[in-house]
Design brief:
With 103 residues, this protein is mainly alpha-helical. It has four helices and two strands; from the N terminus they run E-H-H-E-H-H. Strands 1-2 form a two-stranded parallel ribbon. The mean pLDDT is 88.
């Protein structure tokens, strides 16, 4: 028999709500809301990481927040590249059929 027969279980950690919002927004940025979802994912991801760090182990979800941040930053990067490519095509006078109405 052990010296302490009635040990209390360690306290359960709670997942950060902001981390979940970041991950869900990051996924939505790839499915439905490209730029808006990415911005929400980035902002809430940074807020979640700060909140988790300040909680000293009471909150979990650092991986969720990181995944949301990665998805958000990738979406913003791709959006910026697409906008630059579109602007370059317009500057060079290349036609973009969907924007001109000629199919």
């Amino acid at each position: 028999m052990s010296q302490y027969p009635y040990q209390t279980p360690p306290p359960a950690t709670q997942t950060s709500t902001l981390a979940l919002v970041s991950l869900i927004s990051g996924i939505l940025s790839w499915v439905m809301l490209p730029l808006l979802g990415a911005i929400v994912a980035i902002i809430t991801g940074h807020m979640a990481k700060s909140e988790i760090k300040k909680s000293m182990g009471a909150l979990s979800g650092d991986g969720l927040a990181t995944a949301g941040l990665v998805l958000g930053y990738l979406q913003v990067g791709i959006s910026v590249l697409c906008a630059c490519a579109w602007l370059a095509m317009m500057a060079l006078g290349l036609s973009v059929p969907l924007l001109e109405g000629s199919y």
